[in-house]
Amino acid sequence: MVHATKVGLVRVLGPAHVWALGVGIVLVGEYMGWNFAVGKGGAYAALIACWFAGLLYSCVAMIDSEVTSTVAAAGGQYTQAKHIVGPLMAFNVGLYLVFAYTMLEAANALTVGFLMETVAAMAGHEGLNPQPFIVLSILFLAWLNYRGVLATLNFSLVITAVAFVAILILFLGTAPWSDATPLRHAELMTDLPYGWLGVLAAMHFGLWYYLGIEGTCQAAEEVRSPARSLPFGTLAGIMTLVIAATLTWYVCVGLMPWEYLGQSGVPLFDAARMTGSTALLVLLGVGTLFATLASANGCINDASRAWFSMGRDHYLPAWFGAVHPVYRTPYRSIIFLVPIALVFALGAPLDQVVTFSILSGLLGYTFMPFNMIMFRRKWPLGSIKRGYVHPMHPVPAIVLILLCAVTFFAVFLGYGTQLIAMVVFYIVASLWFHLRRYRYVKRADQFTMPWPKPQGY
């Protein structure tokens, strides 16, 4: 009899799957959520937040590409922290990842429900209950992840490509080079309605354009050639997202007043409605559905890998570290996280769920600069083999920590209570790990990479 806990994950993924995982998780940020930045500071503030957040995530992508192509194991940033910083930081980073992805999964399910409700209302069926669609979308994607990673990410690859092409077609469909274009930037664009403070506040939701690109790291143990596939897929992903985010902003602010756009549930779908084209309306409806499903699909994949890795290392009960003997997936971790996603999807408003995801992600980004600096100091260039070396070190790390500090302040302006509650939660979890759980961690098994001793030890 084969014991599930003795079966490892299987290496079947290529660079296209890494791209699909990163972009698939994030592209939904172009279809919903980013527009709350417009409500915080106006259209121009949202564009500034888009590009500053793009700079932040470019630093994240460069740092992740170097470290993860070297520490090629499931768990991504959690495994990096375990090797480079220490157990307590690794435990916290693991929690950051799980909560960021699980909250993002819940936000995606909420968007699916809202989209179905909107389409039904357009067809004359008012009052459709969105909750069955929320539950079914999470259960279907959990089942897909349970059955195998290759089928899961092939599915994401196809629907992510369709959702990205839909944005390009919407842009081309508005014919911005033509006098007949429906875009009315000159009439709809205003100055900063809340001044530069509004720009700062918009940084909060500016992260939503790109939140989750770091999820490419979670596939490290299932990629055929981590040194090539992880950097290529991650860096190609961030370039794809910057293009999609800029086109999304341009089309939406040219079709809708900022007061309406700032509270829309499905802004790209609403933009397609404003064009008056039935074909674009159908395409962007499909694109919105595909983007949310691709994102939720990737979130289940990433959250379960982080939870599985923590169980395998005894940071959590070892029961979670099991691999399915047939499908080669962390099936117990996948199943365990489903009810948590359902609770938030069925019981919390969209902007609150988005904020919880952003806060957990932001805490993880704050860890990365220190992780990168320690990594280069402990194992300088030439001491170990790296799949990718990011340029201009330590400039990306410094830029990243400064942008994280600005964004924390931006979140505090609008969601200070949630920020304090989240920090308190992680402090309590850290105390639990230190006082109760750490006794079960096998210290001798923590360091699994075939590296020389770090400098200074």
Automatic annotation (TrEMBL):
Coiled coil: none
Subcellular location field: Membrane
Domain of life: Bacteria
Gene3D superfamilies for the chain: Amino acid/polyamine transporter I
One cellular-component annotation, GO: membrane
Domain (Amino acid permease/ SLC12A): residue spans on this chain: 25-422
NADP as UniProt keyword: no
Chief place where the protein resides: membrane
Transmembrane domains' residue ranges: 12-32, 44-63, 84-104, 128-146, 153-173, 193-211, 232-258, 278-300, 334-350, 356-375, 395-413, 419-435
InterPro entries: AA-permease/SLC12A_dom, APC_superfamily
Source species of the chain: Rubellimicrobium roseum
Keywords: Membrane, Transmembrane, Transmembrane helix
Higher taxonomy: Bacteria, Pseudomonadati, Pseudomonadota, Alphaproteobacteria, Rhodobacterales
Protein known as: APC family permease
Annotated membrane topology: Multi-pass membrane protein
Biological process (GO), any one: transmembrane transport
